[in-house]
Amino acid sequence: MGSIDKYIFRTTLASFALVLVSLTGVIWITQALRGIDLMTSQGQTIVTFLGITSLVIPALILIISPIALMIAISHTLNKLATDSEIIVMNAAGFSPFRLFLPFFYATCVVAAAVAFIAAYLAPDGMRRIKQWDAEITADILTNILQPGRFAQLDKDLTIRIRERQPGGVLAGIFVDDRRDPKERVTIIADHGTILKNENGSYLVLEDGNLERFEAGKKDPALVAFGRYAFDMSKFSNSGRDVTLGIRERYLWELMSPSPDDPVYQQLTGQFRAELHDRFLAPLYPFAFAVLTFAFLGTPRTTRQSRGFAIGCAVFAVFGLRMIGFACSVMTVKNPAAAAVQYLMLVLATAGGMLIIVNGIVVEIPPVLNEAIHKFNVRMVRLFGRPATA
Question: What are the residue boundaries of the structural domains of the chain, listed by start?
Answer without folding.
Answer: 3-137+244-379, 144-235
